[in-house]
Amino acid sequence: MSEPPGVVCRECPDRVFANVRGDSGDLRLRRAVAQVAGLDLPREPGTWNRADRSRAYWLGPDEWLLVVEGDDGLALEERLRDALDGPFSVADVTGAQVQLELSGPDAGKVLQKSSPYDFHPRKFPPGRCAQTVFSKTTALVAAREDGAFDVVFRRSYADYLMRWLADAAAEYGYRLE
Amino acid sequence: MGGEVRRLAAGGRIDRDQALDFVFNGRALRGFAGDTLASALLANGVDVVGRSFKYGRPRGIVGHGPEEPNAIVEVGTGASRVPNLRATQVELYNGLEARSAGSSVFQRAAGAFGRLLPAGFYYKTFMSSPRAWMAWERVLRHAAGFGNAPDAADPDTYDRMNRHCDVLVIGGGPAGLSAALEAAGWGARVLLADEQSEFGGSLLAETRALGGESAAAWLAGVLAELDASGNVELLPRSMVSGYYDHNFLTIVERRSDHLGPVSAAATRERLHRVRAEQVVLATGAIERPLVFANNDLPGVMLASSVSTYVNRYAVAPGNKLLLFTTNDHGYRTALDWHRIGREVVAIVDVREDPAGAWVESAKASGIDVIGAHAIIEAVGHSRVSGAAIAPLQGNTLVGAPRRLACDLIACSGGWNPTLHLGSQTGVKPRWSESAIAFLPGDLGVGTLCAGAVAGTPALRGCLEQGALAGATAASRAGFGSGRTTRAAPEVDEPPEMPARSLFLVPHPKPVSRAPKQFVDFQLDVTAADIELAAREGYESVEHVKRYTALGFGTDQGKLGNVNGVAILAEALGKDMAEVGTTMYRPSYTPTTFGAIAGRDVGGFFDPERHTPMHGWHTAEGAEWEDVGRWKRPWYYPRPGETMQQAVNRECLAARDGLAIMDASTLGKIDIQGADAAEFLDRIYTTGFRKLGIGRCRYGLMLHEDGTIFDDGVTARLGEDRYLMHTTTGNAEVVFAWLERWHQTEWPELSVYFTSVTDHWATAALVGPKSRTVLAKVCTDIDLTGGAFPFMAVREGHVAGVPARVFRISFSGELSFEVNVPAQHGRAVWDALIDAGAEFDITPYGTETMHVLRAEKGFIIVGQDTDGSTTPADMGMDWAVRRNKPFGFLGDRSLDLSDHLREDRPQLVGLASYDAKTVLPEGGQLVDDPERQPPAPIAGHVTSSYYSARLSRPIALGMVKRGAGRMGETVYCPLADGRVVKASIVDSVFYDPKGERQNV
Amino acid sequence: MFRIHCPHCQEVRSEEEFSYAGEAHIPRPADPSSLSDAEWGEYLHTRTNPRGPHREMWVHTAGCRRYFNVLRDTVSYEILAVYRVGEMPPERGEA
């Protein structure tokens, strides 16, 4: 098939994930994360920030997912714990997560088949993220500047969701990288 | 057969260059692209398309859309056969095969049989004598329904898609198109859905000009504009099937039916799940038939349908037309008929003195207009050959009937707005005397109605009203001022004079003796049936519906309902508003199971969760048990082994040597914060404040009513950090439970929870050899009993990977539960298997886990407990600390008088006397085996297994006052008549002092 | 299918993302041990079950996992207000 696929799915290995919880108004928390991951925790609901190798996704009013490329999960947790001083929680959840990048002109249609959330660019421009129902489980979806989507879901659902995505995208042409 | 005998030489929207061959009831026929099955059948002169349900009378095509009651067909063959389709909605394709539905022997023979089935037949026959149902059921089940379900799996695929829009416009006719144009013009995201293959609605059969151009040209222009606008999505072939709460709607899109019988490459149907800020109902109206004697003869049609077949499909479904009307709108059909050069026998107008532009126009064309008359009876055998007409004054016949020869009767009894979707939201339609119609009720601020559905008769009015609705909807959704931005096109449309109402045409004989006057064609409900129901005391329209079956067909009474209501109202001496309509429910037209199921079939029906070691288990040939959504190894049979043999082997390995289990599915929650201990104290029955760092404690979680809902071991990892284990099936419930209490009752406690279930892979290394083997791959933890005691946790490395090792045991044996981040789970598992090879390491599954724990009397919450079980019932007071400062959830309920009752069921062990019979789980226990049922129940068996270690069966059960009945005998009657005798024993069968795990 | 505004995500989301969590404003008694069986039973089991506006708790299960309160009409299913835990429903007129 010479035609470019409508949906391209790329697995993103080499990422570590930390779940961070605390009062979003607490400067100590923000400074600690800035020091360790080089970015500000997003305070606006449903948004995400990125720095060179890190991203921080808003999960709830006191909860974020921190994603860092090319790090060690336990070491990241330790560095954060060392930098944090106060009523905060940090847990390495690298083992719990799988991250994909969905791109291609029909990536949005695959999301529409999978989730009741409104991914239209008017409502979900780059910089937005949402935890939502995804097929019969849940996922975190984030809109990127390049028009692609980051999708993060639980590892135990990986086999199921990879089959689901391939099936949902089949009619548009699907490539897994 | 003469081919397309009724096809006009020119005109229509069909593509005459694309002839299509099809087969109907075994006859090879031909039509054109653009035809429906109905228009092609009419073109071929097929008059009779089915037999009536109850009386076996011949029936022909009446309508041209979803209202069609008679032309119900089955399309396709074998697995892809689709029953219950309306021929008026089936797009023709080359090779289409269709059959009339319901052509059972019963229905063909039903002519004589029908009089055995009066109104209320089911009720009268089966309420008085339920036994009659036994005799009748087979016959009736066979006769009921319209077609046969395929008996092979559906080869097609279906799916679902979620959609969001600012404005959903339902119906692509003049009002809907105008609404979409305006809403899109203001920048709103618009979704326009129409059930037909082409947008346009009534414009597809319109002969007048719009704004100086043909209707077709205007339509093409509008569609091009919508297509180019960028914020409009057009969904043709899309039936809005349901209108639910909060502007959630479902749309069934037919994606491949028009292409052929099976289209494996594409999705056959797609269910769109739409969430709309605003909804514009532009669903139009369906013409109301007239109820007169023998009005079900083939050749009696709706006037608008005759016009549609003529103008859109270039089919003249007859030669000599007699028009029967109550209004000016119907005159169009006579004029259309005249325009194609066919004979209009006459216009029979029930109005006293028909006058006005339309009447003049007909007369100017030389058409005979007979005012103050009605068609009282259609004449003919399998097709209309004439009609009896009689003078009418009010609702009374005032003269002798005379006969007119004709072969087609077009009826216009006014219009029924297509208000079904509005009605689905629960808003009752309201009767309008001026519109002579039920109109949608007050649908609220999220819904607008425009065009014929709102009772607007004229085309120009529909265009204007649609535009205004579109602008208003956009404005309510936050786009624009609500003003329309463009003028509706001018339409050369003479004004209409008032219509009159006529719901039942009188006959010289009384209704009960006149030839049948059909109200509901599909279920053969006549005017006499409705009057009978009224005479027998039925007053509510909903009761009459169920008694007579009016509106109970797959068409939900789209044609018959309003006439039926009017006849009922007349019989009851009430007005229309008082009687009201029946409730319309989703789906608007029948929906396939495939569309509802979507992709949730086969492997997608229920998601599977896999642990990191899933591939290893698969390669080892594990049999699976589903626990929640997890796939867990059940047991690992070796070649030739039975399940029992495999489980026996696995159990003995764990007890005597070395075994390993994948325990990754256990729920795990990371709990951090200065108040974590206080929080756990409130959640669990046990205390956590004084638990040392690196130590573990078992706890019970209770509902506020004192019943057990989860249990597990929680470890203290640091000063302010704990790791909670939950049961596999309850992980998410417990996580939400913790959040709920923290967020809603105790926000002042500084504590945070993170689910880490998926983060950790867990291998439970079990058996006397487990310490020796773990030591081979774990060198930085002192594994000796003194340094690493039972109920402790240590951090270190296993197989080079950072690990947490717990000395906890659900088997009663020496056991190390090795936890590593899931990405390393498989590698560490493999390393443990390698290290254990010298001791013949044996993987075991959930069945062996159950046997091992039952031997130890360890309970499984949800198996040994139910929703009424307290800790005391389980003999677990040792796990409850009543003196904590705050208490704990459920604490107070433990003192409720009912929970202190002495005759509560209590956990016991059960040993069958013969030491051979495994009691059935769920088996009821009685004290007196001789007593005939219903015998008082002493208790029941909750867990039961064969114990290889003890060489006999063991069981746990709940027995009333069981704790005080040690040594007594109970009996378990089996379904096959045997009775198993068992003695009540202690619930711990093996190593009662717990010495084996504590070494 | 409801559409519910989550006061934490500050967006309207679809019902699939939420779970119902019972009637709202039923505080846990401060000292359960001081209550009679009947009083404690009242807290455990008695609910208002009104026809009309009902104060209820929902949780954004698939989203931010926050509990919050909803004032919902049990006849029309209209959601009249959404407010956070610890807050009271806005005063309503007779409308």
Give the gist of this structure.
Chain A has 177 residues and is an alpha+beta fold. Chain A has helices at 27-37, 73-83, 107-114, 158-169, and strands at 7-11, 15-21, 48-50, 54-60, 63-69, 89-92, 97-103, 129-134, 137-143, 149-154, 174-176. In chain A, the strands form two sheets. Chain A has a six-stranded mixed beta sheet, covered by helices on one side. Chain A has a five-stranded antiparallel beta sheet with strand order 3-4-5-2-6, with helices on one face.
The largest sheet of chain C is: 4 strands, antiparallel
CATH topology (fold) name of the largest domain in chain B = FAD/NAD(P)-binding domain
Radius of gyration of chain C: 15 Å
Please trace the helix and strand order of chain C, writing H or E for each element: EEEHEEE
- The CATH level-2 architecture of the largest domain in chain B is identified as 3-Layer(bba) Sandwich
So what's the overall shape of chain B?
A: elongated
Mean pLDDT of chain C: 94
Helicity level of chain B: 10-25%
Beta-strand content bin of chain C: 25-35%
Note the gap between the termini of chain B.
95 Å
Helical content of chain C stands at: under 10%
Low-confidence segments of chain C: none
CATH superfamily of the largest domain in chain B: FAD/NAD(P)-binding domain
Number of domains of chain C: 1
Please tell me the total number of domains of chain B. Answer: 6
Structural class of chain B: alpha+beta
What is the general shape of chain C? globular
Judged by helices, strands and strand pairing, the structural class of chain C is mainly beta
